[in-house]
Design brief:
This protein is α/β, with parallel strands linked by helices. It has one domain: LCP protein (Aminopeptidase, 3-Layer(aba) Sandwich), CATH 3.40.630.190. Helix content is about 35%, strand content about 25%. The strands form 4 sheets. Strands 10-1-5-2-3-4-11 form a 7-stranded mixed sheet, with helices on both faces. β12 and β13 form a beta hairpin. The N and C termini lie far apart (about 35 Å). The model has no long low-confidence stretch (mean pLDDT about 90).
């Protein structure tokens, strides 16, 4: 399986969609491709992103949450992935919702090998590398600035690298958002027909564990996602600052207005 996809609440995604909605995308550090081992050792959530979508505006926002951001009980936000009885991701969704105020409807989770497999299945991903990345002893990232076509393993290295940047995890979180945009842009660039879309979503569905979510709803979500223009999607890092005790605190002054702008209709108009 590439993903675990969960829907919370009773509201179903309709086609065409009407109301704004929010999805939590989580990438964990679990290394095993064995489903049983992945559930017993899910890994910390080192990629945490809330995607807000506004169908009326045909626009969206990716809010990147650095992994060391302090959660509602004082622990790092990446650890709340472990607080999920029955492996249902509710604890993670609640923690992120408490920070952002965004009502989470969907959660999608993948681990290292699943991420690599997914990127390879779609033929790699095109990414704009903003600065030199050289992390031989950590992620293995070795990229020069400019547009690059990355394989699954290279995309994982790009997503994991924090040592090449002065602000570490903040730029890493932003880069993970860029990967999401790059994948969407590449898939849209193929001008997929209805049949192509059916095949793509069917492939994803075969590799997805669904919780409270039907294949039909997953298809409608995937079909709608391919209509979104990446140029209408903002990628923004949640403003945080070092607390001095190993966590990042949300910068209340900087974040309050941004989060209010984000949660009212899922897109940023003034930030």
């Amino acid at each position: 399986m590439w993903f675990q996809a969960t829907r919370f609440g009773s509201v179903h995604f309709t086609n065409p969609p009407t109301a704004p909605f929010f999805a939590l995308i989580v990438g964990t550090g679990a290394r095993s491709d064995n489903p049983a081992e992945s559930q017993s050792d899910p890994g910390l959530a080192d990629a945490v992103h809330v995607i807000g979508v506004n169908p009326a505006l045909n626009a969206a926002t990716i809010l990147d949450i650095p992994r060391d951001t302090e959660g509602p009980t004082g622990a790092k936000i990446n650890s709340y992935i472990l607080n999920n009885p029955g492996n249902d991701l509710r604890g993670m969704a609640d923690a992120v919702q408490s920070i952002t105020g965004a009502p989470i409807t969907y959660v999608i989770r993948a681990n290292f090998p699943h991420f690599v497999q997914m990127i390879n299945e779609i033929g790699g991903v095109d990414v704009d590398v903003r600065q030199r990345m050289d992390d031989p002893n950590g992620s293995g990232a070795d990229f020069n600035p400019g547009f690059s076509h990355l394989t699954g393993d290279q995309a994982l290295a790009f997503a994991r690298d924090r040592h090449s940047f002065s602000n570490g995890d903040l730029t890493r979180s932003e880069n993970q958002g860029l990967l999401i945009l790059g994948a969407l842009g590449m898939l849209r660039g193929r001008n997929p027909s209805f049949g192509d879309t059916v095949h793509l979503v069917a492939t994803a569905a075969r590799h997805t564990k669904l919780d409270n979510l039907s294949v039909g709803e997953l298809f409608r979500l995937g079909q709608y996602a391919l209509t979104l223009d990446p140029n209408n999607i903002k990628n923004v890092v949640l403003p945080v600052g070092n607390s001095g005790n190993g966590t990042n605190l949300v910068k209340t002054g900087d974040a309050a207005g941004l989060l209010a702008d984000f949660t009212d209709d899922a897109v940023l108009q003034t930030h």
